[in-house]
Amino acid sequence: MSTNIINGKLVPHYILFIIPSWGDLLGYPTLGKYAHHNVSKISQDLVIFLGGTECAISSEMGTLYYLFGLGYYYVKFELQSGRYITDNRQLTGLILADYVYDHLATSLNITLENDRDVIIGEKLFKMPIDMSFKSENKLTFIRGTLMRNLFIPYKDIFLEFIEVLRDPKSFQIEKNGHMLLSTSRDSYNKIMISGDIEYEAKTKYLEAIAGLFGITLGSDKHLIENFTSTELQNINKTILRLKNVYSSIQYDPMFLFSIIEKSAPFLRSGKPFTSNQEGDQMYKKMPKESIFISAEDRMNSFKEWPVEFKRQTKEELENAGIEKKNKLYQPQQPETLEKPAVMKLIKKEEDFELRTMKRPFIEIKPLPYIPHENPLESLITLKKIIEENYDIQTIGRAFEIVRNNIKQKILHVNYLWELSKYINVYQRAEPNIGLSSKEKVELLRDIDNWIKITKQKFSD
């Protein structure tokens, strides 16, 4: 990709950067393949980055935001056989096109709305490694929030990532080059790796993986086109430093926030990122969240998502796979022949399954009053709304009201994240469409579980 570099200055920025669902961020572009088999379902696709250097590079094609450090793409998925498989790839860089960055920066923030350098949102977790400038009260709150929303739900993945970091053969940047997870237009939803990577490692790394369009060679060329040799040397030094720190620190596996606390003394970044460190009462809401320092000059601009990269829901992507499978593997038998009884039964089961997944047309009706004083009553009202067949967009608004009510009264319950995910999916649904019978059953089961959790919390 030929670029006209306007600003290629590297910015030291030691952060923990998490994308809870890569597919959700990109609008579920593909299920991908694994070992020559189609993937039928993805249950987890987490991206973790222990970042050290960031940069913004602009050209006539737009702005690309880079984060360099130690990264990990983890995916848990299912093949058509129904068997779950996990896979992962090491990363040394993340490339976010301006439209992806803006989508991240304008996504819903679940909590800590008044802290510009700590983001706990529906599509992103971001926090500085060095938080020595924060008050003890604020730090205690951040610890608890991160543990509940990040380190406990994704504990096994973090432990796996740290074990990979401790392996002397991992992240050998000088030996194997860079591995870049990219959303640039010419390498959208792909990982670019170096052509110099060792043959054995290259063969394994290039194997197909769920959730991505592919893994290709070309990271060397991309970096040379966009960075000077001195800048590349500095990037590599930072990655090696991060590798040395995180592979040697001692941490408590039962309290994963200790990874941050133990590494912070070695990764002081000097001047804090935000000038408004503790003055929450003086906080001014910005149009976008401050994710990267290098994007601060674009806080008042927004790049629309390109039409060529069509967004869809997870359900639409997975259902498309089911429809394609049924079309490809439908038995080619003359209709005059009597089908065996077993085949009839299978066909009936398939037809029933498709009927339960079909979303009906529903007339829009106004939401009923949702009690806000008692979170339990809010959830019970939400359950009635689901049972009474409201359209999906209205249900999304109900979820948002209930979530905000719960945040005001309880602050922290482990299903807030799930509420936010439903809000994001349902509010983007087509108008006048209701929940399928299968969605309805699964959603009511989730709400019953949330009601049970809320009752326990009030009784404690």
Write the layout of secondary structure elements.
Layout: E1 11-19, H1 22-26, E2 33-34, E3 37-59, E4 62-79, E5 84-97, H2 98-105, E6 109-111, E7 119-121, E8 125-128, H3 136-151, H4 155-166, H5 173-176, E9 179-182, E10 190-193, H6 199-205, E11 214-217, H7 219-226, H8 229-246, H9 258-263, H10 314-328, H11 341-357, H12 375-387, H13 392-409, H14 416-426, H15 437-459
Parallel strand pairs: 5-9, 10-11
Antiparallel strand pairs: 1-3, 1-8, 2-3, 3-4, 4-5, 6-7, 7-8, 9-10
Helix pairs in contact: 12-13, 12-15, 13-14
Describe the structure.
- The chain is α+β, with helices and mostly antiparallel strands.
- The protein folds into three domains: 11-298, no CATH class; 314-357, no CATH class; 375-459, no CATH class.
- It is 39% helix and 19% strand.
- It contains 15 helices and eleven strands.
- Strands 1, 2, 3, 4, 5, 6, 7, 8, 9, 10 and 11 form an eleven-stranded mixed β-sheet that branches.
- Strand 7 (119-121) and strand 8 (125-128) form a beta hairpin.
- Helix 12 (375-387) runs antiparallel to helix 13 (392-409), helix 12 runs antiparallel to helix 15 (437-459) and helix 13 packs antiparallel against helix 14.
- The longest helix is centred in the C-terminal third of the chain and has 23 residues, at 437-459.
- The chain starts with 10 loop residues before the first strand and ends with a helix.
- The model is unreliable at 1-7, 271-283 and 327-339 (pLDDT under 50).
